[in-house]
């Protein structure tokens, strides 16, 4: 199967998989992660663009916040239907499994493809989009505003210093500063309201 066709099929697959999702993990998030990953891949000549692209598109296909699957069942099912070899499937799933903050925290990655996809996913968790996604997720899952704001301190403000690639580190700087400014304004407004 041609490279372009499998990517189009992957986009169609995740579009159906995330239909109706409104917590910030839908198709729009996946497409931003994919485009960020491809942009970072352009600056990392040692990566395998096909592995990076497919892992980026499928990185949330088995996210436990969204699905109760095991062993990357959704991703593996799609890849098998596309005729992707078992070896390539294992490489893609290894990258997918490297992305999660909760599973991997600050563990240093060795695979450049995993570094790229992890950076792309983390970039989409910070900045203006990250702020919006935090509150979308919080609202969908019954978190109050204060609990959602706490998420910045628990996780999001740490991401800038956890980027793997030079390009992602540069991109994260601006997004991080925006979150700092948002939190300063939040504090100022909540102090005057109290």
What's this, in brief?
With 194 residues, the chain is an all-alpha fold. It has helices at 3-17, 27-42, 49-58, 73-81, 86-99, 101-104, 112-123, 127-140, 145-154, 166-193. The longest helix has 28 residues, at 166-193.
Report on the architecture of this protein:
The protein has a single domain (3-193), classed as Orthogonal Bundle (Hypothetical protein af1432). 68% of the residues lie in helices and 0% in strands. It has helices at residues 3-17, 27-42, 49-58, 73-81, 86-99, 101-104, 112-123, 127-140, 145-154, 166-193. The longest helix is centred in the C-terminal third of the chain and has 28 residues, at 166-193. It starts with a helix and ends with a helix. The mean pLDDT is 92.
Record the SSE blueprint:
Blueprint: H1 3-17, H2 27-42, H3 49-58, H4 73-81, H5 86-99, H6 101-104, H7 112-123, H8 127-140, H9 145-154, H10 166-193
């Amino acid at each position: 199967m041609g490279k372009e066709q499998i990517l189009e099929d992957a986009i169609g697959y995740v579009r159906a998989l995330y239909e109706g999702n409104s917590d910030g993990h839908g198709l729009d998030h996946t497409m931003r992660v994919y485009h960020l990953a491809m942009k970072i891949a352009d600056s990392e000549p040692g990566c395998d663009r096909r592995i990076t692209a497919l892992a980026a598109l499928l990185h949330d296909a088995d996210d436990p916040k969204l699905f109760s699957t095991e062993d990357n069942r959704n991703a593996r099912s799609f890849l098998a239907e596309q005729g992707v070899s078992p070896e390539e499937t294992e490489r893609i799933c290894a990258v997918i499994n490297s992305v999660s903050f909760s599973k991997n925290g600050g563990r240093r990655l060795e695979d450049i493809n995993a570094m790229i996809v992890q950076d792309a996913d983390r970039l989409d968790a910070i900045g203006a989009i990250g702020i919006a996604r935090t509150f979308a997720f919080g609202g969908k899952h019954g978190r109050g505003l204060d609990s959602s704001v706490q998420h910045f301190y628990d996780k999001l403000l740490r991401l800038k210093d956890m980027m793997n690639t030079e390009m992602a580190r540069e991109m994260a700087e601006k997004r991080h500063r925006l979150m700092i400014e948002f939190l300063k304004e939040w504090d100022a407004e909540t102090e005057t309201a109290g």
